[in-house]
Amino acid sequence: MALATTGAVIAGQLAGDVERILVTIVSLLTALFIAADPHDPASETIVQSDPGIQIDPEAITSHPQLQPFIDASTDAILIVDHSKVTAANHSARQLLGINIVGQNVRMAFRHAGAIERLSDPDINHTGHPIRLTGIGQQNQMWDMRIQSIGPGQKMVHLADRSSAQAAEKMRVDFVANASHELLTPLAAVKGFIETLDDPAAGDDPDTRGRFLGIMAKETDRMQALVRDLMSLSRIEAEKYDPPQTPVDFAHIVVDTVDQLRNSQERGGDIALDMTVETLSVMGDAGQLRQLASNIITNAMKYGRTGTPIMVSLAHSRSGAMLAFAVVDQGDGIAPEHLPRLTERFYRVDSGRSRSVGGTGLGLSLVKHIVDRHRGHLEIRSIVGSGTSVSVLLPVAPTDVI
Asked: Which residues contact 207 (CB under 8 A, 6 or more apart)?
């Protein structure tokens, strides 16, 4: 950034007044964009404009090259002259209002933190951001940077940090939830170990056998959770890398159903309806097997015993996608829970989920696998009737099968 700024200043000194203004503006914009990351060491660098330059907003808004460049930015950029907005790009007008040019900053921003920063002529503008909440939509978060560009003039740069903040919150919540999910069975195992260490309890074969059985169950639960966490990590690492290998998904579904029929107590309730013998997608065989197993296993856990679990696979109406669906006849899920079912560790009934051996990551894994395969996941449910989980995946091109 320092090299770019130095070049800009030298060019500005060699150019005419208008060119000097434009070069100064571009150098300041470049500095603001580079400094947009609060953790970037470059943000410590202060870019100073030539104190002899007085920025004419008219020169900016009317210039055929600079204005399109500024308007193309998704960040809001404004120029404030003695507490009055004198220029604003398209993003700024969308955020603060189409008529903000000419308004006092108090009317334009309507935000106490922003107004205080912009109205104080003595404040030392170093380019460091101030975090603002409440500009635009209620929960949006912005980093506002201000750079002096002339006597009484400031350039304001607003960068939306809502997505980054949401991602950070998800990360923190995920760590907290994963820790809780692991600590719960660990505490149970530790408690039983301490009980068995007591000679009075440890010498009773029935008590010992019961406690060891519970410890084994809790250990299995921890192993399942760690496996799912590792799977989720791998899938997320590959989410921008779509699979390039043709995989027969019909074979995966048949194989998964056969395994579940032989290994689960409700295996006999599975009814398979397939209109095709082979159906290939560009996919990761291991992940697609996990997808099919998770969806069918969920239906076996939460459907009522003795009721059918309908598993179907067919071409979509257009023929460009395959349609995989699993329908159970269970208690169903209330509408308010449906949008959150694919969140990590989200459970409609925590106690029941743990009692049937769920980790809270099954549908989250399914959603990430579907996304990586450029597919679509849909969950429908009627309370008292049951739940339907449908997946659409693109069919592999015929020239690669």
From this structure: 201
Segment among 9-23, 174-188, 234-248, 304-318 with least mean pLDDT? 9-23
Provide the angle, in degrees to the nearest 10, between the axes of the packed helices 205-237 and 162-196: 160
pTM over 0.70: no
- Report helix, strand or coil for 192: helix
- The H or E element spanning position 276 is none
In degrees and rounded to multiples of 5, residue 309 shows phi and psi of -115, 105
Burial class, 180, CB count within 10 angstroms (exposed 0-12 / middle 13-18 / buried 19+) = exposed
| pLDDT tens figures, 330-366 | 999 999 999 999 988 888 876 565 566 677 888 999 9
CA dist 330 and 389 (Å) reads 13
The tens digit of pLDDT for each residue in 312-339 reads 999 988 888 999 999 999 999 999 999 9
Taken in order of first residue, the domains within the chain and their CATH numbers are 2-160 (3.30.450.20), 168-237 (1.10.287.130), 242-401 (3.30.565.10)
